[in-house]
Amino acid sequence: MKSVQEHLAAVLELVGPVEPLDVVLHDAAGCVLAADVVATSDVPGVAVARCDGYALGVGDQAADGSGEGASTRRGRHATTSGWRLPVVADVRPGPDLSPRLVTGQCVRIASGAPLPPGADAVVPLEDTDRGVAEVTVPRDISAGLNVRPVGHDVRAGTVVLAAGTRLGARQLGLAAAVGRSRLTVHPSPRVVLVAVGDELVEPGAAVAPGQVHESNRYALEAAVHDAGCTPIQAPVVADDHAALRETLEDQLVRADVVVVTGGLSEMAHDTVKDVLPLLGDVRVDRVAISPGGRFGLGVLHGTGRDVPVLALPGDPVAATVVFEVLVRPALCTMAGQAQIYRRSVPATVSRGWVSPDKLRQFVPATVVGDAETGYAATVLADPDHPALADVVRADVFVVVPENDQTVYEGRTLPCLVLG
Predict the structure, then answer these.
(1) What confidence tens digit (pLDDT) does each residue in 318-351 have?
(2) Which helix (H) or strand (E) holds 24?
(3) Which of 30, 72, 126, 411 has its Cα between 20 and 30 A from that of 235?
(4) CA 276 → CA 1, 286, 300, 304, distances in Å?
């Protein structure tokens, strides 16, 4: 029987990031960048207005004594509420050239429009009398008011997105803003999910005595998606050697990795342990994990390429634990993610129990607290036999080391944070 650490090392040695691919922005969502994105120009490339209003030069606001004479000759004159300026144009977003302002003038400007030469501030519409030919603006305006200067969002030469970044809405918006229509990414790995067992029927169908609704593929489908990969469900396969072999051979053409659940027992009727070695280099071992048991890993020989395969127990609770501990880090590696492990926090446990000897035990629990005051974990069920509902309610797995048989109330143990 191999330790959890030995199995994890073997799994990670088996896989690597999917080869980078140059894709259009539409296809990059959820993928991980394989190369830095560097801005080739400033964003914005010219100073633009932050709001609808009037653009003017702040020098025009300087008082010149009585507000008569030179001010009046420049077209500007003082009022009791501010400066009265002629409006010489309307400026809107777009490539049209704006007029150069001369002293004592202003333009009406839309949010996002480039400031005309000679302007360095924008007075919001609501701070004026909204004049068309002339407008009254406040006296106390400072340079830069309501202006997005050149390079405010991005400076040319800046690495705006680093390799290893997972691309979501904000990241793709930034890539588009710096002019990138394509990105080099690690494509989302395609994970084919195969459930094996005579007792399995699809959800919604009637179950006869001895049958159960198949749930692993649906749980793993969401877990695979959460890991940054693309899940593909194959039909349920009965415990039949020929049917399982045919299903696996059919799926290899579209799989970057195959995940099988069920059919791993040492009983004669379970087929996975017999069929997988016929299709490649695969071994099935016992793993020192609870809940869990047997685990298979290796490669299946596809047409022109080898496809990694990972085989999990059929019990839904065991499948969930083994996926989190052994499979998820492998999928995150294939997706090119820099962080492949779940976060772990230390927490004191609410009660004691006896843990299986020489097995690393994962116990569902809820946790409260923070890093400053400490965390407390409430164990939800019988640690030896957790129910599926307990796993659903849990937000951590309390981790008991292999050589610890007695867990005392109040002991601090590491907790694997889920989600």
Answers:
(1) 999 999 999 999 999 999 998 999 999 999 999 9
(2) strand 21-24
(3) 30
(4) 20, 16, 7, 18
